[in-house]
Specification:
40% of the residues lie in helices and 20% in strands. By secondary structure, the protein is of the alpha+beta class. A four-stranded mixed beta sheet has the order 2-7-6-5, with helices on one face. A three-stranded antiparallel beta sheet has the order 1-4-3, covered by helices on one side. This is Diacylglycerol O-acyltransferase. Keywords: Membrane, Transmembrane, Transmembrane helix. The chain crosses the membrane at residues 12-39.
């Protein structure tokens, strides 16, 4: 065996030892710290059935940091999406469609597909849960925006409404989402037209929903429009 081969083997052993040392230093402390937390998390998730039966499932890890936002006092993670439609939409009709297709939709085992629409964030023993709103009222999540005059709402006025909604807190102990309907809207490009338009505004906290879920809800779930039919963004290289 030549000198170079011996040096190469020693170099490999050296780097392997360094990698093993780094793994032990980084992994073992994390293991000792996280294991008790996960055991406590499991224990708390079982004890809730006895001591706090109104709690539902734990908020998943991917949503926890966002859900820790002060959503009912000073929110920073609100999402506001709006759709413009021809004519004056009926809020009651849309509400009933939402009730049938989303609120009451169930899995084969009888559980709700999206129970979070009737739940809010709740802390218990330091962990974040979804808690059922036992006084849930669908009407409280649907609002018809009324104006003091019959003049059409302009595009700048709509932007001001959306800006205020972005930073508006949700009501405590209520699921953080709502639909608002603005009728008699006229955009800048429609200044010379007389037919009315409506703006449907969907405001929701980001811990409950993301952009993909919102698009699927408004297009596919509510209007039977496949998300695959929508134009996808193109990027210039």
């Amino acid at each position: 065996m030549g000198l170079l081969e011996i040096l190469e083997k020693r170099r490999i052993k050296f780097y392997s030892a360094i990698a093993a040392l780094i793994f032990l230093v980084a992994f073992l402390p994390s293991l000792f710290i996280l294991t008790p937390i996960y055991i406590l998390r499991l224990l708390v998730s079982k004890l809730k059935f006895i001591f706090h039966p109104n709690l539902a499932k734990l908020v998943p890890c991917r949503s926890t940091l966002i859900a820790l936002d002060d959503w009912d006092s000073n929110p920073k993670w609100n999402l506001v999406v709006w759709l413009v439609a021809d004519g004056n939409m009926s809020l009651d009709s849309f509400k009933e469609t939402f009730r049938e297709k989303m609120l009451l939709a169930k899995n084969p085992d009888g559980t709700f597909v999206d129970p979070e629409y009737q739940q809010f964030y709740s802390k218990w023993f330091g962990f974040l849960f979804w808690e059922w709103d036992r006084n849930f009222n669908l009407n409280q999540h649907f609002t018809l925006i009324k104006k003091s005059n019959n003049r059409p709402t302009s595009e700048p006025e709509l932007k001001e409404i959306l800006k205020k909604l972005m930073w508006k807190p949700f009501e405590p102990r209520k699921s953080p989402w709502e639909f608002l309907l603005l009728q008699n809207y006229q955009s800048d490009s429609d200044a010379n037209t007389s037919f009315p338009k409506s703006v449907l505004i969907y405001r929701i906290h980001h811990g409950l929903c993301d952009g993909t879920k919102i698009i699927r809800l408004l297009l596919q779930d509510m209007n039977n429009i496949s998300v695959e039919l929508n134009a996808k963004p193109s990027f210039v290289r």
